[in-house]
């Protein structure tokens, strides 16, 4: 991690839960999203500098409002009024201070997600104070653009969705395939045949299969020449299952459901994965994810940030990838989501297969757009 010394004292924390109804539900192997939720937060220091963050809120269905209450009622008191030497200092101390609380209630995930959102906001505020885009604060050699791929594509709608994503500037696509233990590889093969030269296809099973089911699918789908298969089995499946699948011809990808430096160290040391995909809003924020990215790149893996949420987290993911370097791609869900598009629309940032980063200080987020205010279900603050 870079040694960023720009002390701050948080004087105020604001948080919003938002939900937007959608016409077409977003389906995964483990559940269906009937609306698009998000938790946005803002921190402000004693001098009035501010930063924006996002907390993972897709699951469970009532997750967004829960995370807002957890932030304000249980975590804010650990943050307010204390001088922090850096966002990374705050991230590690909050992780330590909430460990027993998370054990006591059996909810390590929600605590990690709230801390991740606070970390993103602290980095955004620090970059704004320095007058730099976040990527440039973290690395002076950060890129101005990063490769991008379209995700959230249901295999049964892949033809039309890939065509639309291609027209929007994407050159790589990820299809969801984990809806059936006996998933038909023919659909994926047909998708691959529709690709243009220089385009790539990936697949995501969302932890749906057993090792035997995954082996059967991957062997049958060899003709599709997938760039990776993401979470073909549960992230906590035995190491031997992951190593067994790694012996096949399709590279393995995972990381959104791994948490903690030890968890990622184990995954990288095992060597089954080729693509490492931590989620900035689920664990680690900028501090944890950048450390994992740098470690993965040193060991020869590819860092590809996972993301499925609102616009703040997507912007943070783009800046992380730009700062970390490597050959990874930025994930952009192409299902309708006003909570993403009002802040980070692919129409504004995606061109010719790349995401072009804003040159505004921090993440380039100035606030919650007016058109989203009617979708706020809960707002709270502390300080």
Automatic annotation (TrEMBL):
Task: Using the record's annotation, list all stretches that form the Mandelate racemase/muconate lactonizing enzyme C-terminal domain.
Answer: 155-251
The protein's matches in InterPro entries, at most eight in alphabetical order, are given as: Enolase-like_C_sf, Enolase-like_N, Enolase_C-like, Mandelate_racemase_C, Mandelate_racemase_N_dom, RHMD-like
Q: Name one GO biological process term.
A: carbohydrate catabolic process
Cofactor field: Mg(2+)
What keywords sit in the KW lines? Magnesium, Metal-binding
Q: Which domain of life is it from?
A: Bacteria
Q: Pfam families recorded for this chain?
A: MR_MLE_C (PF13378), MR_MLE_N (PF02746)
Any idea what this protein is called? Mandelate racemase/muconate lactonizing enzyme family protein
- What SMART domains would the database entry show? MR_MLE (SM00922)
What's a Gene Ontology MF term here? magnesium ion binding
């Amino acid at each position: 991690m870079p040694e960023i010394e720009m002390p701050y004292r948080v004087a105020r924390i604001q948080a919003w839960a938002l939900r937007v109804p959608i016409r077409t539900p977003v389906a995964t192997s483990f559940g269906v999203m009937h609306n698009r939720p998000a938790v946005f937060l803002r921190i402000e220091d004693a001098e009035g500098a501010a930063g924006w963050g996002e907390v993972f809120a897709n699951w469970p269905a009532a997750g967004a409002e829960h995370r807002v209450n957890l932030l304000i009622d249980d975590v804010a008191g650990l943050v307010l009024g204390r001088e922090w030497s850096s966002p990374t200092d705050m991230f590690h101390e909050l992780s330590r201070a909430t460990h027993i609380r998370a054990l006591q209630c059996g909810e390590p995930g929600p605590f990690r997600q709230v801390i991740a959102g606070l970390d993103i906001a602290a980095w955004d505020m620090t970059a704004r104070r320095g007058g730099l885009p976040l990527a440039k604060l973290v690395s002076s050699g950060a890129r101005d653009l990063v490769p991008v791929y379209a995700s959230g594509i249901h295999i049964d709608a892949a033809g039309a969705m890939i065509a639309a994503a291609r027209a929007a500037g994407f050159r790589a696509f990820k299809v969801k395939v984990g809806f059936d233990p006996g998933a038909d590889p023919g659909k994926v093969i047909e998708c691959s045949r529709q690709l243009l030269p220089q385009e790539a296809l990936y697949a995501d099973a969302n932890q749906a299969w057993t090792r035997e089911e995954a082996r059967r699918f991957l062997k049958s789908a060899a003709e599709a020449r997938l760039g990776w298969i993401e979470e073909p089995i549960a992230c906590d499946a035995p190491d031997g299952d992951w190593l067994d699948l790694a012996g096949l011809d399709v590279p393995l990808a995972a990381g959104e459901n791994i948490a903690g430096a030890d968890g990622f160290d184990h995954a990288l040391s095992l060597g089954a994965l080729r693509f490492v995909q931590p989620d900035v809003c689920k664990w680690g924020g900028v501090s944890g994810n950048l450390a994992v990215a740098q470690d993965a790149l040193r060991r020869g893996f590819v860092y590809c940030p996972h993301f499925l949420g609102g616009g703040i987290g997507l912007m943070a993911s783009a800046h992380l990838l730009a700062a970390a370097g490597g050959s990874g791609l930025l994930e952009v869900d192409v299902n309708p989501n006003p909570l993403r598009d009002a802040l980070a629309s692919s129409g504004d940032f995606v061109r010719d297969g790349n995401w072009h980063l804003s040159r505004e200080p921090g993440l380039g987020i100035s606030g919650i757009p007016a058109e989203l205010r009617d979708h706020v279900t809960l707002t709270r603050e502390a300080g």
